[in-house]
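Support request from a user on the community tier.

User writes: "When I paste my structure tokens into the form, the page sometimes reloads and wipes my input. The last time it worked, I copied everything first. Here is what I submitted, just in case something in the input itself triggers the reload:"
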């Protein structure tokens, strides 16, 4: 009996020993062929999430007024998203000054403007100066004569052809037919205009960086002290809806347009901003009594609701009352 037990233990030891020896033998054989597996494999380092940007999302704004429309272009794909009425039009007001300056500079080619016109171009953008803009407009070939056949003047015609605008047309306000500020444009065309400025077609290779830099230096707030009869502060709206994580990525070029118009009793407020990645426009008409801050807040709210940390993952921003309701 004792010998059988001894034999069983011996056989077991041999089997266990064989099992224990197999990995060692395998390692020796694998080492001989150079295919030895490492003892452990480090986990791959997770890739950091993409930086936040703007992306298509549902926008909810408690807006009280006559006209509310917005559009966003992804400049990498060219895709445009926005409100259902993104092709509807409103007067451009000072938003068009970015094109007027671009049109003049492109025609210069490699030449330098006079010191007076270069200063006027800068003031037209930075301070939204009407008198400076009119100087540039005339230098670009613009005229206040009523265009024939209901067509826009040559400066706006070039915007349509060069930037591929489909909804832009001459203003239809009686008595103001030749005024550039009454040019009618849709948010869809406005983001195309922003893209056209940023990609160099509008101002040409020599002047695009200069113009984009001027648009990043727009100054002044909605406060009464910054608003004057022929110029005004325009650094508000879209920029107020962007987090620092987006603003820190690079310059934000903007050009807003705003006027309280007596003929229809409305503020006409437009916000335009463009970066390397996107172009965004918000266009509004609402009662005088609600003030300029109201329009600025609507532009900021739309922007905030389009901010996304990752593609397809828009941040959830609750519906919020805007301005002085």
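"...and here is what came back when it finally went through:"
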């Amino acid at each position: 009996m004792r010998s059988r037990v001894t034999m069983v233990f011996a056989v077991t030891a041999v089997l266990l020993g064989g099992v224990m020896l197999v990995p060692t033998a395998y390692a020796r054989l694998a080492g001989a062929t150079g295919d030895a597996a490492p003892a452990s494999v480090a986990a791959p380092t997770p890739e950091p999430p993409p930086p936040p940007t703007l992306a298509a999302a549902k926008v909810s704004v408690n807006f009280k007024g006559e006209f509310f429309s917005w559009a966003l272009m992804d400049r990498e794909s060219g895709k445009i998203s926005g409100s259902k009425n993104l092709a509807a039009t409103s007067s451009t007001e000072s938003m068009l000054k970015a094109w007027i300056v671009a049109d003049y500079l492109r025609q210069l080619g490699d030449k330098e403007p006079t010191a007076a016109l270069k200063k006027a171009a800068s003031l037209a953008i930075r301070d939204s100066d009407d008198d400076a803009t009119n100087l540039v407009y005339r230098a670009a070939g613009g005229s206040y004569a009523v265009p024939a056949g209901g067509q826009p003047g040559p400066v706006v015609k070039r915007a349509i052809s060069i930037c591929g605008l489909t909804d832009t047309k001459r203003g239809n306000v009686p008595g103001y037919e030749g005024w550039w500020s009454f040019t009618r444009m849709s948010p869809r065309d406005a983001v195309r205009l922003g893209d056209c400025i940023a990609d160099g077609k509008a101002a040409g290779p020599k002047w695009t960086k200069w113009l984009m830099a001027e648009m990043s230096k727009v100054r002044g707030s909605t406060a009464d002290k910054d608003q004057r009869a022929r110029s005004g502060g325009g650094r508000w709206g879209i920029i107020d809806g962007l987090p620092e994580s987006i603003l820190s990525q690079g310059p934000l070029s903007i050009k807003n347009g705003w006027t309280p118009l007596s003929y229809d009793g409305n503020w006409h407020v437009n916000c335009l901003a463009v970066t390397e990645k996107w172009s965004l426009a918000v266009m509004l008409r609402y009662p005088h009594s609600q003030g300029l801050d109201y329009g600025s807040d609507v532009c900021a709210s739309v922007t905030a609701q389009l901010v996304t940390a990752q593609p397809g993952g828009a941040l959830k921003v609750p519906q919020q009352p805007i301005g002085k309701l």
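Agent notes: The reload is a front-end session timeout and is unrelated to the input. The CA atoms of residues 51 and 249 lie 9 Å apart. The first strand starts at residue 53 and ends at 54. Escalated to web team.
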